[in-house]
## 1
Amino acid sequence: MAMQRRDFLRTTLAGAGALVFARNFSPAEDAAFDSRIEILLDETLGNISPNIYGHFTEHLGGVIYDGIWVGRNSKVRNVDGIRADLIEQMKRIHAPIVRYPGGCFADSYDWRDGIGPAAQRPTRTNFWVGAEPKDGPDKHRYEPNEFGTNEFVHFCKLIGAQPYLAANLRSLPAEEFYRWVEYCNSPAGSTTLAHVRAEAGYADPFAVRFWGVGNEAWGCGGNFTAAEYAVEFRRFTAWVPGYGQNLSFVASGPNGDDRDWTREFFTEIVRKGQDQLRGIYGWALHHYAWNLSRGRTQDWEKGKGDALQFDPVDWYELLREGERVEDMINGHWEVMGQIDRDRRVKLIVDEWGPWYKPGSAATPSDLLEQTPTLRDAVFSGMTLDCFNRHPDQVAMANCAQLVNCLNSLFLAHEDKFVVTPVGHVFAMYAGHQGGQSVRTVFSAPSITYDRDGKPASFWGLKGSASLRGKSLLLTAVNPHVSQAREAAIVVRGASVKSATVTLLTDPDIHAHNTFAERARLAPTSKELPIGPLLAVKLPPASVAALQLELA
Ligand code: AHR
């Protein structure tokens, strides 16, 4: 066995890295490892935008009402009506940015309904009414507008995050978009809308920089062709006053991986000249890993798997689906680059996560709520590592959705609140925000497994690393359902003074936290011995964060 491991390392480590390994480990020591992680400090990839650790909240099911907003008179611990547990946890993970109010809801929403005195706010039919479970609370079907722009921006202030507002391009005119910007950003005392804002207790401008101009314009955002949407985008974003704020507009990207949509949009945008690209900060990609049918169907309902009941083959299938985001990033970036030669426009993955069939909700009446397991933690770690490795392309990403929904960090109902494994991953990875991404080389045996009678494979170890001064954060996932990896760590260009590893894992790949068992899955930390070698054991089905202090 030891022989095979050594052989494996010799073959996979051919090239420049092998020399480094040979310098650090004797043959006897090399037999102790089956994997290697090499960190190339002098190969920097770019600065990791804190905003790739962003979140997404929509007026959908229990996300806003119950998840975030409990109301000022609630018995649930709150700050100005906002769930206190959530505020505390969002501060813990250093949440940088939150997208709101949708999703599909955004293109049905009149922002004016959500401002002004609470008693005067209208009740409207929620976009999601048709999908709501029969026993869903009224507030989820008929939008009471208790929570609107003021409350959302206040939530962002309380947690220290920036707001990212998604404007309605399908059902409101461009003028209403300008007015929403005016309401948020015009200086105290300057406009009628600034007075309305001040009457609500917010004299100072909200200074909202990020604006999504529609959402999924190919579908619920207007059913446009890419060229039609490009014309609308140009019109909506032409000469919007910023009020001293450098407005950053995000355009709605493709349905899944549809590269033709990207090509058609950019082709149409520059029909008025290359300068038009200056008006686009970001190009939105959405990636949901939903089809676990292993190629049997493309049907949106039939293709989904179960969040809690799954076999190892479903575990790998989800990760394979998640892995596609890297291809999307590279593919759309390449298409954009054919037109955006100066690389003005960045990628914004403003919805991502697994999407399972209904049935695993902690609060069964919450639409689209699912219970994340260890599988979703590995998925999330893997996805965040991918974003970290693309710092020059990905400027923002928003996990869908923050609470009581798809890949939620938190589940909440009345006075119950729990951090999911996904929430723990965000805490473990928070130190990457703003760090300098450095190139890593992971070498590990590939995983082979049976996929409907045919052999399939998946990579054995992957991750990312970032540097801040002398502190190096290395994160990685071991996706193997039953085998640990013994990894040697080589930091090229520095020696390591101290190392701590934090692990999230469990012998049961289905492990998850519930209201009754809130800490079934929680990270544990320990120091690693520093000797001539640095090594770590990565248990099966684990997410790891290693904090290394360099000399
Ligand atoms: O996150 C749920 C929905 O998924 C969003 O509203 C929409 O943008 C996407 O299709």
## 2
Amino acid sequence: MKKLMIAPSVLSADFAHLHEQIELAEEGGADWIHLDVMDGHFVPNISFGPGIIRTIRKITTLPLDTHLMISDPDRYLEQFREAGSDTITVHYEACPHLHRTLARIRELGARAGVAINPATPVSVLTPIITEIDLLLIMSVNPGFGGQSFIPFSLDKLREASALIARQKPGVHLEVDGGVDTRTAGPVAAAGANVLVAGHAVFGSPSVPEAIRTLRKQAAG
Ligand code: DX5
Ligand code: ZN
């Protein structure tokens, strides 16, 4: 059994008090900090880039889990690694030469992740699974925090979990989008071991309590 990890997404944090918000996440036992990078092209929203990640790197020693929702991520991999990302996840849909992209991420010394959108089947990752360290199942269409969990994501998690068990058991299975007290249990039962949560953590009156509750729900 892999360790169950909670990765709060700072997309929903109060950026005027970023330092405090991250300290509260640490206090609640966050395992990773999830960083949603959006370019207004691959997804219909713009968030932040390597500059903010560099700042966050100074605030926390927790692993930084960078989720690149950007077109042509190859152009920026080095910058995101230098900014302090420990994991760099690219989208399958944004990478025509995924094998090369993953090799580059690992060459830079980061864990290499691949995310797939709700409409992308898990099976596209079968040939490449041995080259990845983290598989991210998007359970909403990427672009915004606070959206509702898409129920068929549970089937995709089960399928991804079986693929990982068969081919490369060390791969982390992450789920991102609409994870809250209601969905945390089901996604963990379906095999996810890294739960990203934005609104459910930073939209809650107590950030530490929200993280502890999610962990409890995920444990079933
Ligand atoms: C969606 C982002 C998510 C998002 C999750 O585009 O990749 O990480 O911030 O937010 P919640 O947990 O609010 O759905
Ligand atoms: Zn994300």
## 3
Amino acid sequence: MDPKKRSSDKASQEMISQMAEAGQQNAWDRLETQLPQCGFGKLGVCCRICTMGPCRIDPFGEEPQFGVCGADADTIAARNLVRMIASGAAAHSDHGRDVAHTFKMAVESDNCDYMIKDELKLREVAARYGIKVEGRESKEIGTDLADAVLSEFGKQDGTLVSAAAYPPPARQKVWEEFGVTPRSIDREIVEIMHRTHIGVGSDYKNLVKQGIRACLADGWGGSLIATEISDILFGSPWPIRFGANLGVLDSKEVNIIVHGHEPTLSDIIVAVSQEPELVKMAEAKGAKGINLSGMCCTANETLMRHGIPVAGNFLQQELAVMTGVVEVMVVDVQCIMPALGSLCDCFHTKLITTSPKCKIAGAEHIEFHEDRAVEIAREIVKLAIENFTNRKGEGKIPKATERGIAGFTTENIFHHLGGRFRGSYRPLNDNIINGRIRGAAGVVGCNNPKQVHDYGHLAMIKELLKNDVLVVSTGCSAIAAGKAGLMRPEAAAKYCGPGLGEVCETVGIPPVLHVGSCVDNSRILTILSNVVAEGGLGEDISELPVAGAAPEWMSEKAVSIGMYFVASGVYTVIAEPLPVLGAENLTRYLTEGIEKDVGGKWAFERDPVKAAHLMIEHIESKRDALGINKAAERKLYDMEDRRALSVE
Ligand code: NFS
């Protein structure tokens, strides 16, 4: 077992070796025990939707093959794919719903642990929902906004407000003409489950169409609600310094890792862990203090708003426990490996589940209730403090840590790119038009032990930067970039081509902009809308010289994200192919034909450098189409030009 073949991250390599020495299993080991994985599943041609099956289609069979009901490979793979979208969109959107409920509680109560932190954003978002803001108190506006966003989940008439308020008009027209404008969030997800039931639709394109509608309800609906209401309730991010990687753990302090997704609990833990009384309590136990760090997308939430250090991304959750210095790992929902339960049993580490939606064998369950948020957060922090004395020895913490700047948003990028006095997207558009910046790429998504951990993200991002493509990043990808030093402003000089490097250095931004957690991919959608609105780069997102990628994706959420980018007009490259390759027509549709319908399409490429070049080629083709690829020389007026000027 060569740890370098598993992870490109030094801290992770160290911990992987330690796990091997200690005989502890991790995700990479378990992947090996799964090999060879089921080929039918990989190709998407196994159906277990009803008990006439399970059926499977031999993709190499000579004769056309069908399941018992008559479904062919395209139908089976399309059903499986859109069910992945339903699950991914449900996860994001349910996160949005939970935040919206907390928001409603906050604005309706006079005695609540949460309050409105960003009044400006409250007013902006409320106005977009058609709510009167002038002359009204924040709480009044907030009550109307809470009702408005909550009704987006289950309303029976009309379409999603945000799908009409944010995207460029040309984009909305594409959706209308194709018939995929999302109606309400829950409805689109439910309709996927209905349409994929035995004996409903079998036309693969029509199945994908509903997948598109549901993922649009995720990106422009549920995820956007999660982002915007979180900004209002927990404060909008602002550029902030941070430290990242397992080295942020401290052998002398009480270590608490917040892991999962929703900021409702983690935000309160951030506040509570700094209370002098609790710090004193920790000191009385012999600790130097309380050290809070984040894992996965919760890390991105607490980092963006509070600068809390990031312990790691998805594949580092087991490695963090292996250090032996984690008193408590507190989790809510999503991307939490069940393996943590038994692993924590081998250490003094307490795994604490907090959501009724997510209980894990071997974990202690302390249910989180928003109306008692501070009280419960204190209970969890106290438990960690009590557990400090159970730690055996100093533990083994890898030294590797990096620093960087995170905290960019749709709103504050205005200021950084425009400078203090030019708050607009104009300088970004101008720099794209003049070719200093060739275009922009969103590099996002998970880790997957099938790829060398972090390598896919980093190799792709470096190749894009070298070719003057500005990168925005979220999720585990952003954490990978942060750990590798790509979010330091100095990284511009080291990794960027001359054009992008010059722009980053002039403005003082890192070449990779951390725009948040996975639900914050919605920020990328609104950034793209702003770029179109600024003018000079076409009328629709599909005309922009931009591309998206998820070089280490693994989750159903990533499928929903990828599809909402494609359906918003963005060319999207992923490493592990979608599980559809056994269905020839469906594969061809997703990678070619779909572009005619929605303006974007998928590509599959495991080599991250080759994938970067696919994105660069696409960006250049969009530049050609916009007519901005001609070398624009500056020409001074000569006498002849001056004479031609008619002055009346
Ligand atoms: Ni998103 Fe993947 Fe999870 Fe975050 Fe990381 S694994 S789809 S990036 S933590 S949600």
